[in-house]
């Protein structure tokens, strides 16, 4: 037995908070009867409808993919380009990426059919760290990297403080490789942060998500998360 709002969230229709609102407003039926109480629990045999649409309840699955460059973070593309689900084993569930990585960005991407889990990780208050390694044009000064550490103003507001580590620099080619740790997930955020200090990204890879890494995987390979890994991510996302 699971709480009704959790079942709706798992189906990917809404966050748990939004699901609670749908229940209170009378948009949800269980076995043909409108339910307006949040404490209701349902079993796998119960028929749940949201705004007249029956929801399909699937067993939650969680995958980690080493996304190659030149792949769309989507389940389909109208231009016929490769999408991330092309690299996963055939599964019955309708899975989708949690957040996204740009077409030209490689690295760790999570996919699931658990809407509540996805919403938790993507919530602005989520404290799950994401570690990127960027090759940038030019060699940023300490003053510039310190501005990233303090938070830098972008067109959609100030970024949260980041951690910056200079891995290497090539004075002849005038490039640097820098590790950047953030917990936000704005669109093209890492690229925009480096552009803001005058050092555009030439190559970008996400190497860590929370405690998860790409260890043992090659580009294009995927694996299922363990129950422990899923629990760890939940705890990290709810840290504050």
Brief synopsis:
With 240 residues, the chain is an alpha+beta fold. 22% of the residues lie in helices and 30% in strands.
Task: Write structural notes for this entry.
- The protein is an alpha+beta fold and 240 residues long.
- The chain has 3 domains: 53 residues, RNA-binding S4 domain (Structural Genomics Hypothetical 15.5 Kd Protein In mrcA-pckA Intergenic Region, Chain A), CATH 3.10.290.10; 89 residues, Alpha-Beta Plaits (2-Layer Sandwich); 80 residues, Alpha-L RNA-binding motif (Alpha-Beta Plaits).
- Helix content is 22%, strand content 30%.
- Strands 7, 8, 9, 10, 13, 14, 15, 16 and 17 form a 9-stranded mixed β-sheet that branches.
- Helix 1 crosses helix 2.
- The mean pLDDT is 93.
The CATH H-level homologous superfamily of the largest domain: Pseudouridine synthase I, catalytic domain, N-terminal subdomain
CATH class of the largest domain: Alpha Beta
Q: Which class do the helix and strand fractions yield? A: alpha+beta
Sketch the topology as an H/E string, one letter per element.
Answer: EHHEEEEEEEEHEHEEEEHEEEH
| Overall 3D form | elongated
Mean pLDDT, all residues = 93
CATH architecture of the largest domain: 2-Layer Sandwich
Q: What layout of secondary structure does this protein have?
A:
Blueprint: E1 2-3, H1 4-10, H2 16-24, E2 28-30, E3 33-34, E4 41-42, E5 48-50, E6 53-54, E7 62-67, E8 96-97, E9 105-112, H3 115-122, E10 130-137, H4 142-150, E11 153-154, E12 157-158, E13 163-170, E14 175-182, H5 189-196, E15 201-209, E16 212-213, E17 222-224, H6 227-237
Parallel strand pairs: 9-15
Antiparallel strand pairs: 1-4, 2-3, 2-5, 5-6, 7-9, 7-17, 8-9, 10-14, 10-15, 11-12, 13-14, 15-16
Helix pairs in contact: 1-2
């Amino acid at each position: 037995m699971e709480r009704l709002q959790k079942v709706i969230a798992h189906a990917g229709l809404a966050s748990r908070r939004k699901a609670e609102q749908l229940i209170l407003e009378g948009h949800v039926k269980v076995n043909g009867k409108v339910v307006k109480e949040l404490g209701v629990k349902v079993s796998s045999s119960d028929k749940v409808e949201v705004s007249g649409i029956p929801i399909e309840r699937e067993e939650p699955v969680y995958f980690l993919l080493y996304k190659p460059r030149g792949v769309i973070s989507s389940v389909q593309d109208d231009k016929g380009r490769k999408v991330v689900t092309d690299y996963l084993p055939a599964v019955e569930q309708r899975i989708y990426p949690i957040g996204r990585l740009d077409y030209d960005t490689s690295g760790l991407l999570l996919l699931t059919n658990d809407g509540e889990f996805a919403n938790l990780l993507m919530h602005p208050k989520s404290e799950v760290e994401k570690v990127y390694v960027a090759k940038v044009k030019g060699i940023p000064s300490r003053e510039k990297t310190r501005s990233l550490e303090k938070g830098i103003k972008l067109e959609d507001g100030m970024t949260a403080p980041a951690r910056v580590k200079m891995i290497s620099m090539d004075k002849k080619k005038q490039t640097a490789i820098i590790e950047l740790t953030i917990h936000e997930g704005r669109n093209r955020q890492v690229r925009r942060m480096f552009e803001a200090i005058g050092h555009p990204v030439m190559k970008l890879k996400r190497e860590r998500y929370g405690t998860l890494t790409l260890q043992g995987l090659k580009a294009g390979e995927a694996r299922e998360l363990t129950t422990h890994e899923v629990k760890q991510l939940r705890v990290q996302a709810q840290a504050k």
